[in-house]
Design goal:
The complex is a heterodimer of chains A (334) and B (157). By secondary structure, chain A is α/β, with parallel strands linked by helices. Chain A is built from twelve helices and nine strands. Chain A is globular. Chain A starts with 6 loop residues before the first helix and ends with a helix. Chain B is globular, with a radius of gyration of 15 Å. The chains are: A alpha/beta (334), B alpha/beta (157).
């Protein structure tokens, strides 16, 4: 080497070398997290590996790292949410970011402001990350096209819920040690579920086998073209799965004639102790919450040994910390 | 160096070595048997990732890789020897001190480095130094047998 060296360039070169090393970690290039469909398998693995480092932040005496100190995160929620919003809030706080809530009920969207205007106003206040939940599929993409800050999709219509998909993958990998080759059932209201879609994309990219299970009204044939297997008889296949991910049945859908009654749904597709006896002995039971006990899952199963429901909530924190950290870092480097 | 360190340790105080990833952790691991040969036993070991504590995230490159911190003992009350390969600007050490303080309150923290190359940007100095070079305008490269199969320090002009 000749001439004076620049420590910043040196550091960049070293990091680049580390990344180009065979088997070395990849580079996260995304300013936004809008879907799992748009990520590569390496991207997904990088988030899961990064989340591992964040997991112990929550267990030590000072539950905070200064990684996003002085950065501002906005929760922009156009739909009710308790756990996802709380999880993002806590994750931002554990990264030392400041976080504010901007909820639809108190905002000027009631006064007719467009989504585009709302987010441009928010960005003008010097915000670094917008976490958005919206009833319209694609709303986070629209926002991302209109702002320079990071945009994280916390659920858009029936499209995707990428951080839920990532935390589900993280929980499966934690319990089973791998994703590739796992047989995963996703059971219930698949047609209306953004969790199902994010799970499907993530699981297929990492080499798992996905079966959607439910009545034909909730598991239409169209999903076959996305790479899932379909099954309308839970009892016929329940003994095949390593992971059973139960979706919430929205009670308001009963009136829309997609199934005759909650009792009948529960009898055919509910995860009960009796059904669990026919599942694999080491099956992992998951649910994105909130659970309708006695409908899609019995209370005993939700609280049972094989249930990862609370583990999913804990892991959600580490995964959301990793996502915010990686996106912010990518935006500062671009 | 190990002799120097062991002489400085007050008797009766629990001792820990904590290496900064990467390379500092490998050096810290090597220090343990050397300290034992000078009569310091029961040394706890940990490795520290400081990525989340850096002040230069935006400049470090396309993506700093976050690795896990593995310190499975309570640092409180320990005579803690922080180990790194090269001491340069002092910014990594500043980050490492903050990271350790968030885990608990050691009795003492001392800094041991293989190479001190000058060029400090913060008021931080090492307590134990293997080699000192005045290579502010050169490039110092440390290779360890754990990584590249060979122990060597190169200084490129």
């Amino acid at each position: 080497m000749s001439g004076p060296t620049n420590p910043v360039l040196d550091a960049k070169r070293l990091v680049a070398e580390a990344h180009s090393a065979p088997g070395g970690p990849g580079v996260w290039p995304h300013r936004n997290l809008l879907s799992l469909e748009s990520l590569s398998a390496d991207d997904i693995r990088l988030v899961l590996d990064t989340a591992l480092a964040f997991e112990d932040v929550s267990t030590r005496s000072v539950k905070k790292v200064p990684a996003l100190r002085g950065r501002v995160v906005v929760n922009l929620f156009y739909e009710d949410s308790t756990r996802t919003k709380t999880s993002f809030t806590l994750a931002a706080q554990r990264l030392s970011a400041d976080i504010i809530d901007f909820s639809e009920k108190t905002s000027s969207s009631n006064k007719g402001e467009s989504l585009r205007d709302t987010v441009r106003n928010i960005e003008a206040m010097g915000v670094d990350i917008i976490v958005v939940r919206h009833p319209a599929a694609g709303a986070p993409h629209l926002i991302a096209r209109n702002v320079k800050c990071c945009v994280i999709n916390a659920g858009d219509g029936r499209h995707e819920h990428p951080t839920q998909g990532l935390l589900d993958l993280y929980t499966m990998r934690q319990a089973k040690g791998r994703i590739a080759g796992l047989k995963v059932a996703i059971v219930g209201d698949v047609v209306n579920s953004r969790v199902a879609r994010s799970n499907l994309h993530g699981l297929l990219k990492l080499g798992a086998e996905v079966t959607f299970v439910g009545p034909t009204t909730l598991v239409p044939r169209a999903f076959e073209s996305m790479g899932a297997r379909l099954c309308h008889d839970f009892d016929a296949v329940i003994d095949q799965f390593d992971v059973i991910n139960m979706l919430r049945i929205q009670k308001e859908r009963v009136s829309s004639n997609v199934f005759p009654s909650l009792q009948e749904y529960s009898r055919l597709f509910g995860l009960t102790n009796e059904r669990m006896r026919r599942a694999k002995p080491d099956v992992l039971v998951m649910h994105p919450g909130p659970i309708n006990r006695g409908v899609e899952m019995s209370g005993d199963v939700a609280d049972g040994q094989k249930s990862a429901v609370l583990k999913q909530v804990t892991n959600g924190l580490a995964v959301r910390m990793a996502v915010m950290f990686l996106c912010k870092q990518a935006s500062e480097n671009s | 160096m190990a002799q120097e360190i062991s002489a400085a340790i007050p008797p009766g105080c629990p001792v820990a070595v904590v290496g900064i990833r990467r390379r500092g952790d490998e050096l810290a691991r090597r220090l343990i048997p050397l300290l034992e040969s000078h009569g310091v036993h029961g040394v706890a070991y940990g490795s520290l990732d400081i990525t989340l504590y850096r002040d230069d995230l935006a400049e470090i490159g396309p993506a700093a890789v976050v690795r896990t911190t593995e310190i499975d003992f309570d640092v409180a009350g320990h005579y803690l020897i922080l180990v790194d390969d090269v001491l340069y600007t002092g910014r990594s050490i500043r980050a490492a001190l903050d990271a350790i303080m968030d885990l608990g309150r050691p009795k003492v923290i001392r800094l041991a480095v293989l190479v001190d190359r000058g060029g400090r940007e913060l008021p931080i100095q090492a307590d134990f130094v293997g080699v000192k070079t005045d290579s502010d305008h050169e490039h110092v490269r440390v290779s360890l047998r754990e990584g590249s199969g060979e122990d060597r320090v190169d200084v490129d002009a």
